[in-house]
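Open question from group meeting: does this chain pack into something compact, or does most of it stay loose? Before anyone orders reagents, we agreed to write out a predicted structure and look at it together. Recording both the input and the output here so the notebook holds the full record.
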Amino acid sequence: MSGIAGISRGGQASLVKNMLEKMAYRGHGQPHIIERQNITLGVIRNSPETIKHPSMIPERAVWDGPRPPLPFEDQIRLARGAFSLASANHAGLLLARDALGIRPLYYSHTADGALCFASEVKAILDLTRKIHEFRPGYWLGADEIPHRFYDPAIAPPEDLPIASLAKRLNILLEQAVLRQIDGPVMGSWLSGGLDSSAIAALVRPHLDQLHTIAGGMDGAPDLEYARHVAEFLIADHHDVIVTRPGLLKV
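Structure tokens returned:
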């Protein structure tokens, strides 16, 4: 997880730093600021960058996600995985968000017409109150017209035995989970329900260590269900107790 922010104006390093400070818990250390093509971008990262990217990306772009696409239309159309991306291209500011909207991204315009964006709404509130969620599977360029790059195809129904469908679903789910593994130790949200439990069970054999995290009000039954699943999977489990003061603080 990282936090990104920016505005289509140059010389706004102080402003972008203030935006990043409002979501400082999304990262550690000092924010990284880029000023290029009359655009100011910023990012605060949750961990040191360990994945090698083409040198052009860190020089002109900020992103939330492990493997962003190159900041060009043809590359974004081929992108897979979770990302939100902002790039100072020659034509202007480019924004893009992954097909499923896994990484957050919001945008708006200031009173003088500058395009601004951030990973969270609160980072933009001092600039404008009319804020929009950037739609998943879209990119936006200098013309500020949203372009759709991902349109999922709906397969026709297949008349197959339940056992065959279940086997096929298991293969597809495991392939999707394996694409997200980038190390021997990872974490997974766990509610104790079917979806999150299935994902944790699929990923567990491929990791040395799995951390599971469940969030809820104190005494919520979901927390107990999640603990049972984590114990079965031999995972290191963590409960996050949600309180009203804590929610208001976020």
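Observations to bring back to the group:
The two ends are 16 Å apart (CA to CA).
The chain has two domains: 2-148, 162-249.
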